[in-house]
Design goal:
Length: 131
């Protein structure tokens, strides 16, 4: 997505929102992701199926936050794209490291064990979430 188009979309949906700095963060199969002012992350679905998944996230994550101890996205901004009607979301950037093999094995054993325990608690909390 063009940065100028993105800036117009954000200001059209959120009057007075500061868009002085927008950077492309990456993309996956479902979404394009941008950071705004190094503070917010905005996700834009690429196709209809990913827009439907995002609608589910929009309704589910606020409920899930009450059951999870780890930081998960808290959608502060929810908008609609004019060109296709797809939703998009913005949330404060969650600071941390990507949990990749090299990072994990680069940690000392005590920290790695604590991280593994935290992930286990997260999975437990996720599985205990009411359907």
């Amino acid at each position: 997505m063009d940065i100028n188009l993105l800036r117009k979309l954000l200001t059209a949906n959120f009057e007075g929102f500061d868009t002085r700095k927008i950077d492309f963060l990456g993309e996956g199969f479902d979404s394009w992701v941008y950071t705004v002012n190094d503070e917010y992350v905005f996700r834009f679905p690429k196709h209809y199926e990913s827009a439907q998944k995002l609608d589910i996230e929009i309704s589910l994550l606020p409920q899930l936050q009450q059951h999870i101890n780890l930081a998960i996205p808290n959608f502060k901004y929810v908008g609609k794209q004019r060109r296709n009607g797809f939703p998009f979301v913005g949330y404060r950037k969650i600071v941390g490291n990507v949990l990749e093999r090299d990072y994990l094995y680069g940690l000392d054993k005590g920290l790695r064990d604590r991280l593994i325990a935290d992930v286990a608690v997260f999975i437990e909390q996720l599985h205990s979430f009411p359907n």
